[in-house]
User: What shape does this take?
Amino acid sequence: MKIIEAKTYEDMSRKAANIISAQVIMKPNCVLGLATGGTPVGIYKQLIDWYRKGDIDFSEVTTINLDEYRGLPRESIQSYWTFMHEHFFDHVNIRPENINLPDGTNQDAQEECARYDRLIMEKGGIDLQLLGIGVDGHIGFNEPGAAFELGTHCVNLTESTIEANARFFDTVKEVPRQAYTMGIKTIMQAHKVLMVVNGRSKAAIIKEAFFVQ
Ligand code: PGA
Assistant: This one.
């Protein structure tokens, strides 16, 4: 594990975007595992900027997102599908058929999660997985204590995650109570993992997760 410190959010975003950019340059048809949340927005901005300058090309890249709310149609403004299009996909030359997120409208959780794991396998696995971490330590929608051996699965959101995500909805009641998420096993099978963390609110969990023996 390598820890890279950054002075500001912009610095962190640029450093992380550099790592993603290097991956795409080294392997133009790579598979990028992507994440939603406030933290990666600056990274996507930086990548869009480099794309506009002609420094990076996403035409052969495949993306596989970490998670999606269960029950939300992808056109819903709070879906992760919409988030990814607004913040990244709509601004670069990624092919729509190469974009993958769990289908929140498939009510058959077993079928949807099996489809997603099969898809990751068929693509040859994830070359670089981008991750954030929640203040409570969640990764994707895997809460602390979640079984490490799980692939993509359906989870019940905890109260803390529902509250944290309520900022994206009009009321806390509207936050879906379930999601489809890659499991820790799926994430750890990625060839490389890039976790980005920003802000004081994450300091305690980072200390606990990475620095306390
Ligand atoms: P954030 O979310 O980037 O909005 O802090 C991180 C996460 O919940 O994984």
In short: The chain has seven helices and eight strands.
